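User: Please run a holo structure prediction.
Assistant: Happy to. Please share the sequence and the ligand.
User: Here you go; the ligand is magnesium ion.
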Amino acid sequence: MGATAVTSDITADMARNADGDDVKVRASNVIKTYPGKDGLVTALKGVSVEIPQGEMAVLLGPSGCGKTTLLRSIAGLERPEGGEISVSGRTVYSSDHKVYLPPERRAVSMVFQSYALWPHMTVAQNIGYPLACRKVAKAQIAERVQQMMDAVHLGKYGHRYPNQLSGGQQQRVALARAIIADADVILFDEPLSNVDARVREEIRKQIIALQAEFNFAGIYVTHDQVEAGAIATKLIVMNHGEIAQVGRPQELYDNPVSRYVASFMGTTTEVSGTATSIDGMVALDTAVGRVIGKPTSAIVDGDRAVGVFRPEWGHVVHEHPGADHNVWPCVVKLKSFMGAHMEVVVELRTSSGAPVEATVAAPRGSGLREGQCYYLHVPSADLCVLPEGEQ
Amino acid sequence: MSSATTLIVERLGSRRSAHRWVTLLLIAVGFLVLYPVVRMLWRSFVVDGAFSLSAFGQLFEARGFSSMLADTAIYVIGTVIVATLMGGFLAWAMERTDARINAIAGVLPVIPILVPAIGLIFGYLVLFSPESGYANILLRWLLSLETTSGPISIANFPALIFVTAVSFAPMAYMIVSASLRNADPALEEASRVNGASRWRTFWRVTLPTSRTAILSSALMIAILSVGAFTFPLFIGTPANITTASVFVYRGFSSWPPQQDVAIALAVLLTIVVQIAVLAQLRAARAANRAVIAGKRSSASALQPLGPWRWVVRGFIAFYMTAVLLPLLALITASLLPYRGATVSFDNFSLDNYRSVLSDATSREALINSFSFGAIAAVLAMLIAAVLIYAATVRQRSRGIDLVLYVPAAIPNTALAAAFIVAFAGPPFNLYGTAALLILAYITAFLPQASASATAAVSQLNKELVEASYVSAASPLRTARRIIAPQLLPGLFAGWVIVFFLGVNEVTISVLLAGLDTPVVGQVAVEFFESGRVPHVTAMAVLTFIASLVVVALAYKTVSRAAATSR
Ligand SMILES: Nc1ncnc2c1ncn2[C@@H]1O[C@H](COP(=O)(O)OP(=O)(O)O)[C@@H](O)[C@H]1O
Ligand SMILES: [Mg+2]
C-alpha cells in the first residue's frame, strides 16, 4: 500500500527539520511486539512520526491498530524493540545505542483514558503532584494549582476527592494535572471516550484553548474520525501497526492515498476498473463506463484501480450537465433526511447487469423523487483514483 | 501482566537486588513451610536409614485407635452434612428469596473471624451444663421438670457436630452464595415462565447449577473438620469422643508420651487432607467454570416465598441465635463468681477478671498472645504481600503459590507435630520459645494472609501507578505516595484477620507453647482441664474485647499513616 511512500515522505521531512528546530517528538522506525496466544503480535511495525511545538497530532485508527502502544512507547511506559525516539531533541529511546529513559525522566505528561486520578488525594493534591515531584516550593505549588483549577473551571473543588466529582469534572482534573508542569509534550489517550457527547465537545474546546495558551506539542489518540478532524492540526491515520497517511485533516479527506484512509475518513462510493493514464489524470474502464479522476498515489497503467468519491462530490441533476465524462443516468432508490442536507442512494445502470449503488448528498428542496430517473455527475477534479489494495 | 508494569516494578530499587531479595525470601519461607513436613515424613517413614512402615504398624495397634477412627468418621461426616446444609440453605435464602436480611448477609462471612471457636464453645458449655446451664434451668422451669439436671446435654455427638457446624456454616455460605450470585437468576425465571413450580425449579434448576459449589464447600468443611481440634477437645472429651487431632494431642501430652504414634497419625491426617484438598481444588475450578458468561439480566433475583418467608426467616433467626446466645451466656458467666451462681445483678462482679489479670500465668498469656499475634500478622502480611507482588510481576507464580498455600492443606495438629519434630530438638532447640510459636502462626496463617494480599494487589490500578511516573515521580515516591496508600487498606484487613486467628489459636499453641511462654489458647485448655471454667470465660471475653481495641487502635494508626503519606 502507500506506506512506503509515506515513510520516505517523512524521512524527507526529517532531513528538512534536522537543523535543531522546534520538533518536540520524533519517533523513527519504532517496532514493538507483544507475546500473544500464538506467537508474537506486532503492535508497531516500524512507525515514524514527528510533531513540532504547538501542533496537535491526532493518531486515528480502529481499535487495536497500535495507537495506545505508540503513545505509551513515547511516554516510556512501554519499551519498544527497535527504532529511536527523541523528546525535545533528547534521545529517550534508541535500540542501536541501548538508550532507555524511564518515564519520569522524559519531559512528557499524559492524560489517561481512565483519568487515573489518585483516589486518596484531593483535587488540589492530584493537580499539584507533578510540581511536588519537580521539587517546586509549597507556596508556589498552591498558587499554580489555583491558577490551573481556575483555568479548567474547577476553582472551588480543590478540597474534594475525585469520587465526589462528575465524569467531566474528573476529566478536567486529569487535564489540569497533565498540563500544570508545563511539559513540552502532552499525550492524550482517548481522553473523551468516557464522557457524554455534550461534555465531550466542551472539553475538546478547552483542550484547544489550553494548547493555545501553553503551546505544548500534543499527541491525541482517538478512533473517532469527527473528533480527530475537529482537534487535529496533523492527522496520522494508522492501520495494523503502520502509518497509512499523514496530513492535515482536509488533505486526508479530499486526497486519501488508499481506500483504507478514504473509507476511514467518511462515507465513500467506489467503482472499480482498469486504469489508463491520460495527461495527469487516470481513466478507468468500469461497469458504468469510463470514469476519469485524479490519482493521489502511483497508479500503473493496466492495473485494477478504484474510483472513489464522497457524497458531496457528486451532483444529482434533472438535465444532462453537458460534461463529456463522469455523467451517468441513475434512478433514486432511497432518500434520507440528514439535517443540513438529504442523503440520496442512487442506482447506476451497468453494462454487466449488476447495478452499482452510489451515495450522494443533495441540497434540501432539490425536488428529487424516489423511483425517478436523473443524472449523476462527479467532476473529475474531485474524484480520486486509488490502488485496489487489499480492502 | 503487561510488560509495562514489569518495567515499572523492576525499577523499584535496583532490578537485580530486588529479585535477589525476593528469591531469598522465597527460599526462607519455603524452608519454613516445607522443611517441617519433610522432616515429619522422614521421621515416620525412615527407620535407621531404611524405608519402613513400622511407625504405622504401631499406630494401628495403639490403644483406642479403632474407636478414634470411628469417632473421626462420625464427626467429619456429620459436620459436613449439617454445616453444608446450614450454610447452603442460608445462601439460598439470602441470595434467592425475599427472606433475605441485608444486615445479616453482610455479617455472616465475618463470623468465623469475629467469633472465635473458644468463645462459642464455652458459651455452649455455660448454656447447657447439665445442672447449672442457663438453658437447662430455663427449660426445667418452663417444662416444670422435677429433676436437678438436664434435660439437654451437650456431651454427645449431635451437640458436638451442631456446635462445629454453626462455626463452619459461614464457609459453606460464602462458597454457595458466591456461585448463586454468579449464576443468572434468569435461568430460574425461565423455568418458572415455562410452567415449573417453585419447588420444581428449586430442585431442577437452582440445585443443579450450584452442585459443584455445594461439593466444593462440603470438601472444604471436610478438610476443616478433619483438622478441627478445639471443638472435639472441649465438647468431645467429657463425652469420651476422641477424634484424630485430639488423639495426636494426647500422644504428645499424655504420660508416657507416645510421640511416634502421634506423628504417624499426623502424617496420615496430612495425606488424607491432601486428597481432599486436590478434590476441592478441582471442584472449586469446576464451580468457577459453571459461572454463566454473558450479560446478567437485571431481573430481581429475590423470589417471593409467601407465607414460607417467615419459616425461612425463622431459620435465619435460629442460626443467628445459635451464634449470639452463647456469646451472651459467656459474658454473663464471666461476671458471676462460680459456675451455677444465680443470674442477678447482686451477684455480678469483676472477680473473675481480677483473678485472671492478677494470676501471673494468665496475664502473661494475654500479653504473649497479643504480641505474638500482632507480630505474626505483620510478618505474614509482609511475606505474602512481597511474594504475591513479585508473582504478579514475574508472571511466574508456581513456586510462590506452592509455598503460600501449602499450609492450607496441613491440619494444624499435624503442622504443630511437624514443628516439634523439626525445630524442638537440636540444631534449633526452639521448643517452648516465642520464636517457635510465632513461626508456627506465620506458617499456619500464610494462606489467609495470601488471600488478603492477593485481593489488595489485584486492586492496585496499573494506570494510577503509571500516571505517577508520567508526573515525573521517582520510583520511591511512587511507592510511598501512590502504591502504599492503595495497598494499605487491603493489607490491613489481612492483618486484622491473621491477628484475630493468632490471638485465638488453640491447636498449635497447646502443643508448642512452653512453660515460659504461655498463650491464651494453651492456658484455656489448662484451666478447662483443672475445672476453672469461669476463668476461661473471663479470659475469652477479655481476649475478644482487647482484640477489638487493638484493631481499632491499629486502624487509627494505619489511616493516619495513609493520611500523612498523601
Ligand atoms: N499489554 C499487551 N499485551 C499483549 N498485547 C497487547 C498489549 N497491549 C496491546 N496489545 C496488542 O497490540 C495491538 C495494539 O494495541 P493498542 O496499541 O492498544 O491498540 P489501540 O490503542 O489502537 O486500540 C493489539 O493487537 C493489542 O491486542
Ligand atoms: Mg487504545
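Residues 1-8, 292-299 of chain B have pLDDT under 50 and may be disordered.
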